[in-house]
Amino acid sequence: MKKSIYNLKNKTVGDIDLDANIFGVKGLPDLIHQYIRYQNAKSRQGTHKTKSRSEVSGRSKKPFSQKGTGNARQGSNKPPNFRGGAVSMGPVNRDHSFNLNKKEKKLALKSALSIKVNEDKVFIIDSFETKSFKTKELYSDLKKFDYKSALFIYSEKGLDKNFKLASSNIPKVSTLNQKGINVKDLITFDKIFIEEKSITEITKRLL
Do residues 52 and 123 share a domain? Predict the structure, then answer.
């Protein structure tokens, strides 16, 4: 499938053949949802915790005699019913993540890319290199793409220094190495800008 190549001024400078097995597959909303759940679960810290009876300060000795006091019998002053006692069945440190197999991950990425291509929200850019590091000049060029939010995916060789400096102050614009492409970012950002050199790298990884 053919796709136009643009420069950063939104002018067509050529064409590129995109692999239909990556950029032209069927959209799978269920799998995309599962992948986003996987990402969110993986990013959770799981450090919420309360102290158990073995961790709260206090004595394990009986606070008073078993009989004769008129009070209910007690074994220590650490149970939840005592002030400063433990929390009953409270949260503990845990890992919230779960696994997705490699085929599911690849298919979810292909599906997300294909959906964006079908919506005409993927732009192949010849190069992210800019002569100036000034935000004003880059912002003026990017406005021609009429985006609400934009993700710029650059190649493994790295991001142009001037582009990095200029784009860092533009709201709702983010950059990402092609190694880090993920479903959540592809779906969250309105338009996706992929450096031409990255297409080969992405294709090689997802085939």
Answer: no
Q: At 32, which amino acid appears?
A: I
Angle in degrees, 0-180, between the axes of helices 196-206 and 102-118, rounded to the nearest 10:
140
Tokens of 63: 């606070």
- What pTM does this model have? 0.83
| 86: Cβ contacts below 8 Å, ≥ 6 apart | 50, 51, 52, 53, 55, 56, 78, 79, 80
What is the mean pLDDT of the segment spanning 121-147? 94
Q: How many domains does the chain have?
A: 2
Domain range enclosing 69: 46-95
Please indicate, yes or no, whether residues 132 and 62 belong to a single structural domain of this protein: no
Strand order in the sheet with 12-17: 12-17, 2-6, 122-125, 191-195, 150-154, 173-177
